[in-house]
Design brief:
Helices cover 43% and strands 16% of the residues. By secondary structure, it is an alpha/beta fold. The strands form 4 sheets. The protein has a 7-stranded parallel beta sheet. The protein has a 6-stranded parallel beta sheet with strand order 12-11-10-13-14-15, with helices on both faces. Keywords: Glycosyltransferase, Transferase. Pfam families: UDPGT (PF00201).
Length: 492
């Protein structure tokens, strides 16, 4: 059972936020940034933050047993899901077992903090964590949802579970059918998050529906605060609409900075980083095509061959990031990818994406369009070529291409492959001298300036985060029960 260590943990003075994250890179990154921002707020009373991750993730973050459980700003504590092997639940029974184990572990962490005079005053989770809701109810602690996707995705999911599910499901096999949801532009079925239109009957699809249904039932009953990793100017209409239904705080862009410790779960060494940064330094401004498909997507050898072919065809310098475990053949073709390296391009297994996107040599980002990658592209002012696969990626590329006009979608052929010819066409459309390319680059530049203003000290992200903390402070006060749990004593 995971417990909180004494060393480096905040004393009971002010607020203590316990942020529970799913143990994958796309959740860990924004969770770590939020925890840092909370701890650095400096409101009237101190704000402390602890990031809790699964045991397997914690071990990757701190491989040495002697590693500190704090980085000097936030603290870290592992929780157990009962399996502790990094696997996903196999079926409903397995999900139930892991929920109970996670709840028991998190409850022990909360009780341990309270017993040591460091009570948790608000629990938070990335998107959805049913064990967090269980533990918060058990200990009578307020909950806040950290929605790490755009507010458009929050709206789509909210309306699906509030009267629109039959309409969406009935047209799930027609990708061109348009659905009009409150506050949103008409959205084609093909741009809905994949699990809402999954008619295969897969275990994963059913699990997502069940979990999100319980999330919105919890929201309806308990009305938790919802922090969203976006900013007002990016999704103004849908933000206004969702504030009619939920207590929404836009706290983005939640993109790490040099003052915040970055969490990289993938092993890498500084020699490789030095190598690709030196290579970037030697390239012309806005000349490099940066290609990366995130930490989850796996690509076939055929798809990677087409990507390499397209990059060669366009004739521009490229930086291609492909992990060995990101290939469907378990990395056997990685050596052949490395053999394609020349003066024109470079293939690496890992890079610091934000550092690369911020480099003046990068002129285009070929991406799977996960939200972290999307918001990093926005903040960096880099146009996007989207190659989405699943989940929110299908909606994000719609926003990129149609709402914000900062990129285009690479179309797949009948075999589900983006051909090299199609990729080269997209790159030219974004990096060439056509009117379309000019508009795309100008829009990217404008959004970058707006995003950076929101992220700067005193900007909307900091202001809204302060407002959120104040609502927690004025809403509830707590007292310690004899058994060490927290209970609400006064409603102010």
């Amino acid at each position: 059972m995971a417990e909180a260590d004494d060393e480096g943990l905040p004393q009971h003075n002010g607020h203590h936020f316990l942020l529970v994250a799913v143990g994958i890179q796309s959740h860990i990154n924004p969770a770590g940034v939020l925890a840092n921002r909370l701890a650095r707020l400096g409101v009237d009373a101190p704000v402390h933050a602890t990031l809790s991750v699964p045991v397997t993730t914690y071990r990757r973050m701190f491989p040495s047993p002697a590693a500190a459980s704090t980085d000097g700003v936030i603290s870290y504590v592992p929780y157990s899901d009962g399996a502790d092997d990094g696997s996903w639940p196999k079926d409903a029974d397995d999900r139930a077992l892991r929920r109970r184990a996670s709840s028991k572990s998190l409850s022990a962490i909360v009780a341990c903090f309270a017993a040591r005079g460091r009570p948790v005053t608000c629990m938070m989770c990335t998107v959805v964590s049913l064990p967090v809701f269980d533990v918060a109810r058990q200990h009578n602690i307020p909950v806040a949802i950290y929605w790490i996707q755009p507010v458009t995705l929050l709206a789509i999911n909210y309306h699906y579970f509030h009267g629109y599910n039959e309409l969406i499901v009935s047209h799930a096999t027609d990708p061109t059918y348009e659905v009009c949801l409150p506050g949103l532009s008409p959205l084609r079925i093909g741009n809905f998050p994949s699990f809402l239109i999954d008619m295969s009957g897969s275990e994963r699809g059913k699990a997502f529906i069940e979990v999100f249904q319980e999330l919105f039932e919890y929201m309806d009953q308990w009305r938790p605060k919802v922090l969203v990793n976006t900013f007002d100017e990016l999704e103004a209409n849908v933000i206004r609409e969702m504030k009619k239904h939920l207590d929404v705080f836009t706290v983005g862009p939640m993109v790490g900075s040099s003052t915040e410790a970055r969490i990289h779960l993938f092993k890498h060494d500084n020699i490789d980083e030095k190598r690709y940064m030196e290579w970037l330094q030697a390239q012309l401004e806005k000349s490099v095509v940066y290609v990366s498909f995130g930490s989850v997507t796996k690509n076939s050898k055929q798809q990677m061959d087409e990507i390499i072919g397209g990059l060669r065809q366009c004739g521009r310098p490229y930086l291609l990031v492909v992990r060995k475990d990101g290939l469907e053949d378990d990395g056997e073709s990685h050596h052949s990818l490395e053999d394609t390296q020349s003066q024109l391009g470079m293939v690496v297994e890992w890079c610091d994406q934000l550092e690369v996107l911020s480099h003046s040599a990068v002129g285009c980002f070929v991406s799977h369009c996960g939200w972290n990658s999307t918001i990093e592209a926005v903040v960096s002012g880099v146009p996007v070529i989207g190659v989405p696969n699943m989940f929110d990626q299908l909606t994000n590329i719609c926003l990129i291409e149609e709402e914000w006009e900062i990129g285009i979608k690479g179309e797949r052929n009948s075999h589900g492959v983006v051909t090299g010819t199609e990729l080269a066409r997209c790159i030219e459309l974004v990096m060439g001298e056509s009117p379309k390319a000019m508009v795309t680059r100008e829009r990217s530049k404008v959004l970058k300036e707006i995003a950076q203003a929101a992220a700067n000290a005193g900007g909307s992200a900091e202001k809204n985060l302060r407002d959120f903390v104040k609502t927690i402070q004025v809403s509830d006060t707590f007292c310690m029960d004899d058994d060490g749990t927290m209970s609400k004593s006064i409603k102010l």
